[in-house]
Amino acid sequence: MTEDLEFEETNGNVSLVPLGGLGEFGLNMMVYETENDIIVIDTGFMLPNADMPGVDLIFPDIHYLVERKEKVRGILLTHGHEDHIGALFYVLRQLDVPVYGTQLTLAIASGRLREYNVLGKAQLNTVAPGDTVELGDFSAEFIHVTHSIPDTVAIALRTPVGIIVHTGDFKFDMTPIDGKMSDIQTLARLGSEGVHLLVSDSTNAERPGQTPSERSIYGTIDNIFQKADQKLFLCTFSSSLHRIQQFIELANVHRRLVAVTGRSLLNNVRTASELGYLNLNPDYLIDARDASMFKPHEVVILCTGSQGEPRSALSLMALDNHPFLKVERGDTVVMSARIIPGNEKAIGNVVNHLLRRGAKIHHERNANVHVSGHGSSEDLKLMLNLLQPKFFMPVHGEYQNLMRHAELAESVGIQSDNVKVAEDGELIRLTSETCEIFGREGRSGRVLVDGKPEFELEDIVLRDRIQLSEDGIVVPVIVLHSDTGADISTTDNKSNLENMLNGIEDVSGIVQTDIPSETGLNAGQIEIISRGFVYMDKSEELMEEAKEITRSVIENLSDEQKQETETVQDEIRGALRRFFSKQTQRSPLIFPVVMRV
Amino acid sequence: MTEDLEFEETNGNVSLVPLGGLGEFGLNMMVYETENDIIVIDTGFMLPNADMPGVDLIFPDIHYLVERKEKVRGILLTHGHEDHIGALFYVLRQLDVPVYGTQLTLAIASGRLREYNVLGKAQLNTVAPGDTVELGDFSAEFIHVTHSIPDTVAIALRTPVGIIVHTGDFKFDMTPIDGKMSDIQTLARLGSEGVHLLVSDSTNAERPGQTPSERSIYGTIDNIFQKADQKLFLCTFSSSLHRIQQFIELANVHRRLVAVTGRSLLNNVRTASELGYLNLNPDYLIDARDASMFKPHEVVILCTGSQGEPRSALSLMALDNHPFLKVERGDTVVMSARIIPGNEKAIGNVVNHLLRRGAKIHHERNANVHVSGHGSSEDLKLMLNLLQPKFFMPVHGEYQNLMRHAELAESVGIQSDNVKVAEDGELIRLTSETCEIFGREGRSGRVLVDGKPEFELEDIVLRDRIQLSEDGIVVPVIVLHSDTGADISTTDNKSNLENMLNGIEDVSGIVQTDIPSETGLNAGQIEIISRGFVYMDKSEELMEEAKEITRSVIENLSDEQKQETETVQDEIRGALRRFFSKQTQRSPLIFPVVMRV
């Protein structure tokens, strides 16, 4: 009897642990777990915001998986966007498990795996829509859906508690570029069979209506081609292969040669056309370095940089810094991508510079040159109505998007109590009867990477950077002399002082003084160095005073106190903090260094 | 003959020097100059973006005016928004000139003048719409226009070359809250008389159609009042007095008491109601500290924070950090303001947190709770058609807004050659026949202020901060011993080392070593300190290696080289830069300090 109960309580259950994507855009990663087995859907990364200085990449914290690595049966990928596959190399370095994805998804993922030397040991398994894979307690069926990249799938999991459908990113494009519709029939069949839990994409939950077909922008771009009488720059994400397909078709129609620039764009175009996901006549392709050899109206240049990324081709051209491409008066630039929140300023700067060069600019806000790959409210309702799930959990988005998606679910009749808005790191327990959020997993979170992925950026380092950027740093360096009878000549020190002052040209400030050696520990030299605090040429007086304060702090310490480096530092830090705050209303990091000789 | 020509070339001309607002939002300030006289329209400031860490305020560089201070006859203000008056105290500290503005504008401006101790000496002259002021070669007529703050004026300047109309901010609100329409009659009369140059607001040039009346949001807010059964928070800019008037009226209708929180909001409400610009029944006002004493449905709280400003009332409430106000489940929050580009992330964070507390949120993107105070395309065309100027110059906006406004001007028939898109710091020369951009004024630009306005933030300091924020700072401190025969005991140094390591708890890293004293100048102690670079607990090995590299750099220097502090620093900096770049792919600021004893 007890045994039966225990079996019911544990063996029969499925836990969900969202490691990323619930409370932010990006980092998509969901753990599904039974007593014996774990599978993971997607391993995405995220790009940092402006409030994370010096951060290159953000990965989900995968301690939860590493601690249970013997249970992990596989990683399932829904599609080839970086917010779903970008952390794969990072995960595979720590977990040696099979990966399942469609042909294009794995081909794109392989690029980065190769770059980070994990391709060799990676167990990549190609699946096709319609395939089913058995992974311990889970059976995963891959279902084709339309999105801005081909070969995208939703995943239906058969689990001990019932069917879970994890949509990944999707829209219902009724006229997709590659002719492959979302597999509505399979979704409807699952709905008839009975879906226990739907886990669905909330990206566009706040948009009313239906997301238009990818094909809906064709006319606008065609019109832009017709009117362009000089060079034409078409800028989009390197993974927007349906978009690129349309650009290439229109280039053919308008008899322009196609130059592709940017490593990621070139890689994706090459991969997709080799695998047949992009229909490309090589006769129309030219090397971007040769673009200037043709007349302006004979070429179209495909490039990246739609988000104003400073090192992208478009940003370089906007500032006339690109090695071989130039935007000139009369050229046309199409930014065929979403303006991602947070990037408005950077994009605006690029637009302003391009306009100054005399280019015509078409972007999302002034022309119909972009359409989303994510379903809007009515698409999300269609998914809900096709599947008619008992329980519903929104994923992919900030809290406001998840909340809005929850409202949509209730609006189509899902019981309010059965709609669960969870966030990263919460544990969701699913039984055949219930779905409850029952706690938090302590070790979830984000891993910030700056430079090499081996060097995780700790929160404390990031906090330091933010404080450094606010008010700079002041480093008082104090040499304390033990009373050894050593002859410390003032003249010698003077010449040293001159060396110091003359020698350092790129220093925002150095002030140095000599204090006569007395008995006990004495301040022999005091320097105050600063970066990012005040401009020294104008603040000599301020630093002279700071130096005096430092000296008097030391002089007022007892010999016992002087022996305690911590005490010396604390006293100096406190005195200078008060002084600088009063004088400048700034709060630099103050970091006293005590040297003893 | 020569004299006549000279007279024509100089005496007859008017120069325009935009010191701010042409190429950005904010900083609005325009200089109009003849041979004898200068007048200035508006003195705005700007708030910094995320890419300017630690900057509090931005002012226009006014060297151009200071160098010509004896010519400046007056400052004319169009309205009381900070992007038009926020730099007045900064300007009046350097220029002792009369200021002209309407009653409300001067009342609002006085607050900041008082705060910065310039109110006493300020020569403030109140004007009313319809008034004309003579200022040397200029005669300025003030013309009422509608905007989001009452008592706004456009200014018509009669100059030696003809009439210049400077619109300031405006819309054509046909049903303004205070019943005072834009003075279309006067504008039309000027148009008939003949306008030489129109200088007009481009803020909303990219928006199609007409900006709706301020009154158009009344119904939505009314509806929100009806549905709110708990506390209601209404959040807007402290200067949006028409908006605040509507909130107060609706509070009366729905029998809610009004609590106002936030210093700027309280000041503006007090000033405007004293002067009769706000119709306010004091019986309905309560102290925000007492709001919790009433039932939730009995109060409405007016607050600021619509841009997600971290120290605003709304942001504090979102994080449950407000001293006496609390957002709770079932409360309603209305963010009745524009989502300013660049603030999306901060606003999104506040919205997410408010939703987590269970509040209902209405903002610009999901409800009709905000309307702009700036005219859209059709309003701008109406202004152009009323005035029918010979020349046109768009102001107030980024380059893309100015360009769009220029297109609108051409679309209503202004000759393309007569439309001049200038930017900050360019000099525009206006004769009775021509209008030409003929150069740049070198000393224009921006003054960044961090802390007290006395401490201008130099570009080099800002650049340092940005670099510090990217990769942190590393400070190697080297003590070089002159060979004085001094007995430097290793034991002593060891205990010092322990002191150092124990003493500093909030240091991200200190590494220290002892090098035996030999002959000549020797490295006695080497420490490497870092902030914002790597997390020291995990990077001890890295810093040990860095220390070894520093030591070997010094050992490989000749005694002569060791005498040159600059050489020692350069060598250490170079070696460590290469080392850190290879090991971590990061480029911290490296700032060696050489101490000599």
Describe the structure in your own words.
The structure is a homodimer of 597-residue chains. The first copy, chain A, starts with a helix and ends with a strand. Chain A is 32% helix and 23% strand. The model of chain A is unreliable at 1-9 and 484-520 (pLDDT under 50). With 597 residues, chain A is an alpha/beta fold. At the A-B interface, helix 11, helix 13, strand 23, helix 14 and strand 24 of A face helix 11, helix 13, strand 23, helix 14 and strand 24 of B.
Count of distinct strands of chain A: 28
Oligomer: homodimer
What helical percentage do the residues of chain A reach? 25-40%
Average pLDDT of chain A, to the nearest integer?
A: 88
Largest interchain contact: A-B, 90 and 91 residues
Biggest sheet layout of chain A = 8 strands, mixed
Main-sheet strand order of chain A equals 7-6-5-3-2-1-20-21
Shape category of chain A: globular
Q: How many angstroms does the end-to-end distance of chain A come to?
A: 77 Å
Count of helical regions of chain A: 18
Low-confidence stretches of chain A are 1-9, 484-520
The share of residues in extended strands of chain A comes to 15-25%
- Supply Rg of chain A: 30 Å
Structural class of chain A: alpha/beta
